[in-house]
Amino acid sequence: MNICVFLSAADLDDRYTVPAREFAALLGRGGHTLVWGGSESGLMKVVADGVQETGGRLVGVSVDFLAAKARKNADEMVIAKDLAERKALLLEKSDAVVIMVGGTGTLDEATEILELKKHGKHTKPVVLLNTAGFYDGLRQQFQRMEDEGFLPVPLTDLVFFAEDTVGALAYLEESAGMR
Fold this sequence. Notes:
seven-stranded parallel sheet
């Protein structure tokens, strides 16, 4: 399965890097392909290294102004002209999406993917990996949106909140009929 992972390119502490390494190893050992922003820095590098070291493939989609930071030994690397094209290509090349910890770029990617799913523009499973409770506030906000009528579909139809890496991958594989 081609699994798109949205995540930070920042260098982070063990609270985030250890679960990221665990998830990467699960992907690689499972024979999955990582589709990601292509960066050779921060958490993006941690996950790419882990997938590659355990036998998985890497498909990167960088953007022209970050091309100098793109991983050189990815199995495939595409350079998009802008962030909008990058997000479209990431979604196009993937069968499922995982949102890991990140900043405003990751949040932008997450909300766009969910908005597209809400409008039926894709039906791919989306997992929000809530490492160390990072997305507790976002989950609360999404729940409020649903409770107050802002979401035309149930929240559970848009996104699955996983508390750990094993649960995230299990959900994806189950959604794909692999379990």
